[in-house]
Amino acid sequence: MPANADLAQAHASARVQGDSLLVELGGVWKITIDRPSWIKIVGRAEPKRVKIVLVNLENWDSSLLLFLFEAQKWCVAAKVTLDASELPPKLRDLLRQIVAAQGKDEPVDRSENPISLIGLAVFDVWAKVKQISNFVGECTLASVRLAKNPVRFRWRDCLSEMQQCGAMALPIVGLIGFLVGLTLAYTAAVLLREFGADIYVANFVGLVMVREMGPMMTGIILAGRTGAAFAATLGNMKAGEEIDAFETFGIRSIDFLVLPRLVAVTLMTPLLALYANMLGIVGGLFVAAGLLAIPPTAYWVQMQTSVDMSDLISGVIKSITFGGIIGLSGCLRGLQSERSAIGVGRSTTSAVVTAILLLVVADAIYAVIFNMLGI
Question: Does the N-terminal or the C-terminal CB of the chain have fewer CB atoms within 10 Å?
Fold first, then answer.
């Protein structure tokens, strides 16, 4: 490479190839030297695709990145596909980081065959399923190691996480549970009063809270509160290279970081669900006593006629599963986070979305299984 930047100025040329525009870049690109203008290179051309290649590129710095970013912005505005596959991987990564920092989306190539796009989407889903399966397998092996040697488990970290995701979540879980029970009682009262069956509000509120709404609402709250916190914490640790330091010293991140959080949220979720059930039933009691003039004792006795131990156990089983899903989703997305502030934010959002989606899927599966078993 020439040491003097004036020996070869930065140059760019463009030529049309069918419906594509081929742009060749070469020379020395330095921020201290004038670089070519993308607008002048494109001119009045209206291609459907822009391909950038490097020809005799001797040296470059941020000047080349600024030129490529200018090309990226033009392609987004013109809805043209930018093909940067010929660029070095490092240069493509830097360009993606600049685009992400500026909040610009890459143009979508709409010229692809729809069948090809479906195939790529299927492969993407399959890759994500494999990632989740591998992570679940690693957590399972870590749990086996914990059972064999519980002394090495970080109980202090687990108790700290139980405090954060359990005791600290009592106010919001209690408030939501109470309001959900209140809403269910009002909804049931509108319908049941037409048939003179006001007393059955107790049956409706108790059964729905214990079997469905208590565990589900608790899971959704913890997905947004605890799952997001797990993803943000692990994402920041990955961005700060703390997780790499653990691996360098031979410390498994699954054992050291994931398992205490997973155990904590799995143990706390059923307890919080029972707490939400209780306050939801109390919320229905307020409506029954204030709106329907049903005595609290009659409300309680009537509720016990429809809610039995099998309903309570089914709700607890669901909540245990929901806790595991929340812990796995938050930790997985945190460990998959990119090493940047934007990556941490995206992993946090992805953790919440993934957890809520899997909660709904798991609840539907349990509904079918319990119906088949007659529970």
Answer: N
Query: Could you tell me the pTM of the whole model?
Result: 0.69
pLDDT at 2: 39
Specify the 3-state DSSP secondary structure of 10: coil
Q: Give the chain's radius of gyration (CA, Å).
A: 29
Q: Which two tokens stand for residue 292?
A: 């329907």
Distance CA 127, CA 120 (A): 10
pLDDT digits (tens, 9 = 90+) for 205-261: 999 999 999 999 999 999 999 999 999 999 999 888 888 888 888 888 888 889 999
The amino acid at 287: V
Q: In what order do the strands lie in the sheet with 81-83?
A: 11-17, 20-29, 49-60, 81-83
Provide the token pair at 248. 């360098």
Token pair in block for residue 312:
């309570």
How far apart CA 73 and CA 83 sit, in angstroms, is 13
Measured CA to CA in angstroms, residue 48 lies from 15, 72, 118, 163, 185 at distances of 13, 14, 22, 57, 59
Q: Where are the domains of the chain?
A: 5-102, 153-373
Would you say domain 5-102 falls under CATH 3.40.50.720? no
